[in-house]
Amino acid sequence: MENSPLQQYTRSQLASRNGTDRDEIWVAYKGLIYELNKSRMWRNGLHYEHMAGQDLTAEMESAPHNENVFDKFKIVGKLIT
After folding, report:
1. Separation CA 59–CA 22 (nearest Å)
2. Rg of the chain taking only CA atoms, in angstroms
3. Which residues contact 34 (CB under 8 A, 6 or more apart)?
4. Which residues contact 77 (CB under 8 A, 6 or more apart)?
5. Which of 11, 44, 54, 80 has the most C-beta neighbours closer than 10 Å?
């Protein structure tokens, strides 16, 4: 079975999935958008000083964990750059 291509989203569309404007809690990392709704660490769209609805690629460089943290989350789309 062939996988369908990922839906593409703009930065504005990503920003509206910040956990306050809508129920979705999404972040982008390296061009992919992840759904974090089920993470207890992202309740209300906040994770320490990080906010949902944003591209976190640059911020991950100083994170105490690596990019494998996204492995357990569903990819919902691609960020249009």
Report:
1. 23
2. 12
3. 26, 27, 28, 70, 73, 74, 75, 76
4. 6, 7, 8, 9, 32, 33
5. 54
pTM for the whole structure: 0.87
For the segment 13-46, what is each residue's pLDDT rounded down to a tens digit?
A: 999 999 987 889 999 999 999 999 989 888 888 8
Q: What is the largest CA-CA distance in the chain?
A: 41
Residue 4's contacts (CB-CB under 8 Å, 6 or more residues apart) are: none
User: What token pair was written down for 43?
Assistant: 């309740």
- CATH architecture observed for domain 8-79: Roll (3.10)
Q: Which two tokens stand for residue 6?
A: 């990922």
